[in-house]
Write a structure and sequence with these properties.
The complex is a heterodimer of chains A (175) and B (195). Chain A is of the alpha+beta class and 175 residues long. Chain A contains four helices and nine strands, in the order H-E-H-H-E-E-E-E-E-E-E-E-H. The longest helix of chain A has 21 residues. Classes of the chains: A alpha+beta (175), B alpha/beta (195). The interface between A and B is large, with 41 and 36 residues.
């Protein structure tokens, strides 16, 4: 295996990501917001820490695009706008959607799960970039930061709700 | 019109969830014709109750069609929409078929604000199904305010170290960073067209 071959494979993975994204159709942005809110409410009902998804989630619409945000756009420390977990961890995320006929398509997303203070790794961040990077080996379009900004591990494209599944049912339970 | 509690559609769906699978309630739409709110209610019911939901237009349905639709299937969530308002005769005929309206799944009566009087006066049996569970559909509360948008724009400008104008210039010149935060910035600036 050479560096060139590794880059070819990384490029092929980005092409696959692009194709999978093209096939991933969601409901309208309002419907996606509704689904996420219901999901977070259901999860909140099983937790000790109180969260209010109806206040935390925000939808912005403009010129055929929609932004669904929870918590700050950049995580710089705990805020009342984060979704908080029983473990002491916190979550913020942003999902960008493009209107298509009778629904929407995912353009980009970021999910930042910050573990409780003192735990390593410090955070996990699931990112989907809008475009492929010129060096897809270093920066795959759909990637996970394992607590290190410059390390990006590729992962397959998921429905936004399924990423929450991984955070609630896998990451949070492992802490 | 009596004072009814104003609730976001999300909270109204939550009330049905807490009540269990069965139950009737009435929701008064914020305007006489609000198709978008009706879509939203259907979506909230589906997401909160985790079951399929359907809209049935009362005005257009005959007795047989309505009975058939309510019982096949009998356990999903159904919204009976009164549209812009039903005639007194229609309300009376619905009241006569009240037994056929009973089903296992939840039922939401979606009425225009002026129709609650007709329900009370001409369909007392259906009114008794609903009891005190009548709500005015209130604002959703899920939209980003202008102040919140400005706060995020400031946060993103500080993060990237340049202004919104510069972000637009870079995006137009195809020199933009790849991060999802930059995409968010453009959308919040109203320049999703540059994506």
């Amino acid at each position: 295996m050479t560096l060139e071959r590794a880059r070819e494979l990384a490029e092929a993975l980005d092409t696959k990501t692009d194709s999978e994204l093209g096939g991933l159709r969601l409901g309208t942005p309002s419907q996606v917001l509704t689904q996420i809110r219901a999901y977070l409410q259901r999860r909140s009902d099983t937790m000790n820490v109180r969260n209010n998804p109806i206040q935390l989630l925000k939808l912005y619409r403009s010129n055929g695009f929609a932004q669904i945000d929870l918590g700050p756009s950049i995580d710089k420390g705990p805020t009342p706008d984060h979704f908080r977990f029983d473990s002491g961890a916190r979550l913020s995320f942003g999902i960008t959607l493009r209107d298509v006929e009778r629904g929407s398509q995912v353009v980009a997303f970021r999910y930042h799960y910050e573990f409780r203070d003192g735990q390593l790794p410090r955070y996990l961040r699931f990112d989907l970039n809008e475009e492929p990077h010129s060096d897809p080996l270093r920066e795959p379009r759909c990637h996970l930061h394992p607590g290190i900004d410059d390390v990006r591990i590729p992962f397959s494209v998921h429905n936004p709700i399924e990423i929450l599944d991984r955070i609630f049912f896998v990451v949070e339970r492992a802490t | 019109m009596p004072d009814f509690s104003t609730e976001p559609l999300f909270e109204i769906a939550r009330r049905l969830e807490i009540r269990g699978e069965t139950g009737w309630l009435a929701v008064l739409s914020p305007a006489a014709d609000s198709a978008a709110d009706l879509d939203q209610l259907q979506s909230e019911l589906q997401s909160i109750l985790q079951m399929p939901s359907r809209v049935i237009q009362l005005e257009r349905s005959t007795f047989e069609e309505l009975r058939e639709a309510l019982h096949h299937p009998h356990n999903d969530a159904v919204i009976l929409s009164g549209g812009t308002g039903l005639t007194q005769e229609k309300w009376r005929s619905l009241d006569l078929m009240r037994s056929a309206l009973e089903r296992r799944g939840p039922v939401v009566l979606w009425l225009s604000p002026g129709d609650i009087g007709n329900l009370t006066d001409h369909a007392p049996n259906i009114r008794s199904f609903i009891g005190g569970s009548i709500f005015l559909a209130g604002p959703d509360g899920g939209f980003m305010t202008e102040a919140e948008r400005q706060e995020r724009l400031k946060e993103l400008s500080e993060h990237f170290g340049f202004s919104g104008d510069e972000a637009v210039r870079r995006a137009a010149a195809n020199e933009s960073p790849h991060e999802p935060e930059f995409v968010e910035w453009l959308v919040l600036l109203g320049r999703g067209d540059l994506l």
